């Protein structure tokens, strides 16, 4: 296994999630500061929009319209002319906050949810994955998931892989023509609890191991080929981008679960240079 190190790219955030590389910019959600940022390659940033319901997953419709998860009110929002417009209401299918998301080439958004009130100390219970079509239609496409997180879609649009954070595994599905998911199977068993993930051009998955000090590159079957260690911080999410697709943007957090959203400057973006570029979505 090869070990890589990071450099600080940008800091001064509360709690970052949902990194996406788009149009030569890095998009991130500062969940507990209620803002979506867009950063240039030199680390300078601008506020794209404020999201009162707490932003998380970010994606883009085929024509480029941004989609942003509004966690607390369990809605998927569109950013139109600088303003948030409701794209879909998921509250009938999701009892608790929705979180990460991936949008495929047809504009289908696959949205996860936590399934229980973690911060209130509620007991874990499995939950579902919800599909929102490009037209805003909503339906359930998977059940009995252990906190679905960080979904990705392969370049051919035929497979979806997600993290099951509470089960310490990556799970794969086949995507049908109508967006339904079939043939559920284990992509990899892990020693860490996966949070955000991203896909590279060889089909390997970069995993943020939230209960650890490392990001891991994992092949189907569970082989770990690379490790990116972070010092005295927790990995939260990652994405590949940059001019050549070989910059791994690593979102990290310093604190405990109970301190989420309570410490300004607890979250930052670190970068590592990798050998295999980005592949698929995100």
Task: List the main descriptive attributes of the protein structure presented here.
four-stranded antiparallel sheet, globular, Neuraminidase, five-stranded mixed sheet
Written overview of the protein:
The model has no long low-confidence stretch (mean pLDDT 95). This protein is mainly beta and 282 residues long. The chain has a single domain, classed as TolB, C-terminal domain (Neuraminidase), CATH 2.120.10. The strands form six sheets. A five-stranded mixed sheet has the order 1-22-21-20-19, with no helix packed on it. Strands 2-25-24-23 form a four-stranded antiparallel sheet, with no helix packed on it. The chain is built from no helices and 25 strands.
Could you give a short description of this structure?
This protein is mostly beta strands and 282 residues long. The chain is built from no helices and 25 strands.
Strand order of the largest sheet: 1-22-21-20-19
| CATH architecture label name | 6 Propeller
Q: How far is the first residue's CA from the last residue's CA? A: 24 Å
CATH homolog superfamily: TolB, C-terminal domain
As residue ranges, the low-confidence spans are: none
Helix content: under 10%
List the helices and strands and how they pair.
Elements: E1 2-4, E2 7-13, E3 16-22, E4 25-30, E5 35-39, E6 45-50, E7 55-60, E8 66-70, E9 75-80, E10 83-89, E11 98-103, E12 109-113, E13 127-132, E14 138-145, E15 148-153, E16 159-164, E17 169-175, E18 181-189, E19 194-199, E20 205-209, E21 214-218, E22 224-229, E23 234-241, E24 247-253, E25 267-273
Parallel strand pairs: 1-22
Antiparallel strand pairs: 2-25, 3-4, 4-5, 5-6, 7-8, 8-9, 9-10, 11-12, 12-13, 13-14, 15-16, 16-17, 17-18, 19-20, 20-21, 21-22, 23-24, 24-25
């Amino acid at each position: 296994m090869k070990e890589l190190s990071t450099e600080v790219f940008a800091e001064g955030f509360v709690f970052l999630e949902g990194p996406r590389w788009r149009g030569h910019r890095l998009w991130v959600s500062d969940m507990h500061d209620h803002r979506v940022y867009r950063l240039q390659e030199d680390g300078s940033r601008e506020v794209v929009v404020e999201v009162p319901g707490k932003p998380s997953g970010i994606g883009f419709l085929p024509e480029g319209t941004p989609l942003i998860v509004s966690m607390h009110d369990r809605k998927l929002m569109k950013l139109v002319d600088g303003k948030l417009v409701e794209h879909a209401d998921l509250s009938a299918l999701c009892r608790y906050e929705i979180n990460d998301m991936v949008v495929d080439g047809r504009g289908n958004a696959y949205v996860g949810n936590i399934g229980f009130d973690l911060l209130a100390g509620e007991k874990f219970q499995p939950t579902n994955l919800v599909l929102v079509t490009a037209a805003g239609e909503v339906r359930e496409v998977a059940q009995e998931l252990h906190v679905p997180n960080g979904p990705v879609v392969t370049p051919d649009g035929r497979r979806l892989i997600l993290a099951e954070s509470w089960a310490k595994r990556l799970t794969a599905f086949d995507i049908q023509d109508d967006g339904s998911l079939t043939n559920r199977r284990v992509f990899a068993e892990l020693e860490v609890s996966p949070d955000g993930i991203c896909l590279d051009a060889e089909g390997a998955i970069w995993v943020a191991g939230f209960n650890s000090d490392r990001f891991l590159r994992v092949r189907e079957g569970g082989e770990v080929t690379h490790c990116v260690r972070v010092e005295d911080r927790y990995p939260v999410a990652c994405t590949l981008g940059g001019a050549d697709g070989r910059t791994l943007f690593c979102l990290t957090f310093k604190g405990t679960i109970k301190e989420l959203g309570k410490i300004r400057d607890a979250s930052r973006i670190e970068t590592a240079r990798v050998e295999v570029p980005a592949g698929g979505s995100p």
